[in-house]
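assembly run, all chains below
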Amino acid sequence: MWRRFLAYRAGVLAAAYVLLLVLVVLATPFLPGPDPRQISDEVMQAPSLAHLLGTDELGRDVLSGIIHGIEVSLTVGFAAALAATIIGVVIGAAAGYYGGALDLLVMRIAEIFQVVPSFILAAVIVALSGPGLTRVVTVIALLAWPQVARLMRGEVMRIKGLEFVDAVRCLGVREPVILATEVVPNALAPVLAAGTLIVAQAILLEAALSFLGLSSADLVSWGRMLNSGQRFLYNAWWLSVFPGSAIFLTVLAFNLLGDAIGVALNPRTEA
Amino acid sequence: MRRFLVARLGWAIPVILAILIVNFLIIHIVPGDPIQALIGDFPAPPGYADQVRHEFGLDRPVLTQLGLYLLNLAKGQLGFSFANRQPVLGLTIERAQFTLLLMLPALAAAALLGIVMALAAAPRAGSLYDSGLTALSLVGFSLPIFWLGQLLVIVFAIKLHLLPAQGMFSLRTRLTGWAYILDVGWHLILPMFAVTIYYVAIVARVARASVLDALSQDFVLTAKAKGLSRRHVLWRHVLPNALIPVVTVIGYNFGYSLTGAILVETVFAWPGLGNLFITSIGNRDYPLLQGIFLLTAIAVVIANVATDLIYAALDPRVRAAGFRHA
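ok done. output:
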């Protein structure tokens, strides 16, 4: 499995990049350089030696903003993906294992979630209930769990018919225990790949909401920076080029990572 | 075919009902007072707020409001926009036209390009061209569409002065006839390009996978064994079978494109539905928000049903099963 993962070079590169981001977040408090919220007289400066990526309309350093913005993106990405994956695994596993009316109900609800235009819904909820990271995470998780649930349901339905499950049952193990200790662990592989892709979606969605000005103005986030970039497109290209690159590279990394994990864990595909 | 249609409608109607109720509840669950937002900071005489609240029927019990809402919907009335002082239905339809003007050509171009690129790449799986396409579509898939829009504006409008940066027509002159149409088309190029790049990435990714899948089927081997030319096999045997997932993706995205428009329309100040949505969030214009949400959700459902019908027309196996979803 590791050999297949390593063979997927782009995936390794992406993993290294994500690791770097995590390290930077942990090191942020100790880094030198200006506070990203620090207003100064040096407004709208093009990139220079003093400000490598320039400054914005209030004289805040763009590079510093990008570094401090990692935290918001990663927090939202990981938290939303984790929540969506847990909800999806529990609901999908129960629906796939027990079937019947429960399955029908869950799949219907999942279908409605998939039909509802999620971005509009997220924007309405965040706009009306007020910004705040927890709300954004909750909304994204609520919109993303059906993807995991469907995948989990399919895997569980496949695995519960395998012989080893019958063997465990013959030993007298109770059904919920079989599901939790035998079936679910064997069904987790594709879910892991899907969860990684949800991190990418969540980062993109948070950036989009912030870009529209729907996130908290006190938070330093890449989407927020693009929001001011939009207002000053004509005079300050650096306000949109650099924060946008950060979003793009990070989303790309998680997409690559998700693909690589999918390839590594699926014995039927060749790397 | 008729049984299939009935089955799909039997799916669509409960979904639409559920959307109606979600739509009504959501705005009542979240905090914030529409009346206060409507009056604003203007020093209104006491009792004025209550009068406005009564005028809009917002002082009645929630269930009564829900009943009235459904009753009005049945009559085809989507309500009245507080902020625009216009009926919601007319306003949304007017703006939806501009969004479709942007989205339909972009989606059509993306579908065509994506399929052609995948057909060229898949038979040479693993080649440089194929890996390049896979990488490119991953890049397109990861680009924040609003950032892509900003980059296009910076390069083509601000630095090179080739194309207009924003809006749907030139403001300095009043054009009519062909000159007006050309002017709108001129403004359409950049936003359409941004949308197309994004959807090409999605279509190419799906189409490549499904062409590869079709290529590995036995009937392709049979066709090759019969001595048919490569081109004939690709266009007559592989393509029709590979199209099915592609049609699904395009169909789903047609519905979603109304929402995707929010970001692109914000960057390019395109006066479509997305733009209207953002202003009505700022105004807390509840009936308008509900109307936009409802119309887009229904458009998605209709696009889904239409996709399934096309699907069934393309593939007799789907017709026989009566249902696409497992």
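The interface with chain B takes residues 10, 107-108, 111-112, 115-121, 123-125, 127-130, 154, 200, 204, 207-208, 211-212, 214, 226, 229-230, 233-234, 237, 240-241, 244, 247-248, 251-252, 255-256, 259 of chain A (CB under 8 Å).

DSSP finds ten helices and no strands in chain A.

not gonna interpret more than that til we talk
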